């Protein structure tokens, strides 16, 4: 039995929401923003618990998380504007709309880079251990990325190429890219990333419980896990993007960051893997004296 007016493939597919937010007076609340906020809350709560469990204080974590969130958002917007500059600069464009973050447009690569840089600076200023902070945050960040992808579902954006698999995503004609107007169902890349990131975060927690990956190793493993899934998702997506030799820029970014994460993980594993089992690591850096050298 099929829904009236639909082919069997379309009838079995995943529907898209017919709304993406609501208005209260002159203020519009977007579900995309709600999803991002929900992800931040999950990352914050889980990160706090993990940091406190490692011996740190909630006050230290709050200070670090605040700066990390602020510059994570700034970095996310900056990456989007830089990689999609044609949307804001050039003939007929309004450059100041690059500041309109509420209109959408965030790049996860910029978010990770901006947030990590801010966290590193704060840990250096306050002489805290960057590795412990990063490892405490890693699983929560991946859960946050999973939750954030629901925002793409509400916006009917960033989906994959046309398909008629049973779990295909129905997209309204007004949201279909140029050249794909005749297709009704597409790969639900938001769902692929949601599942991959959720499973990845759970695996990180289990791995950390079993082997206690510290000194930044869990964060490096997070980078490897995330970029592995992101690379394959990028190969499916059809939304407008800059390409180099037929590949989306984000595909190259995924490979580069994946390789960097793997190298860092191996290097840290070689350095710490067999020498510190059962040894607590310091949350605060200590001054190196001549006697220590």
Describe the structure.
Helix 5 (130-148) runs antiparallel to helix 7 (189-211) and helix 5 (130-148) runs parallel beside helix 8. The N and C termini lie far apart (77 Å). This protein is mainly alpha-helical and 293 residues long. The protein contains 9 helices and 6 strands. The strands form 3 sheets. The chain has a two-stranded antiparallel ribbon with strand order 1-2. A two-stranded antiparallel sheet has the order 3-4. It has a two-stranded antiparallel ribbon with strand order 5-6. The chain has helices at 8-11, 31-53, 58-83, 108-125, 130-148, 150-155, 189-211, 217-234, 249-272; strands spanning 21-24, 27-30, 169-170, 185-186, 243-244, 247-248. The protein is globular. Residues 1-5 and 286-293 have low confidence and may be disordered.
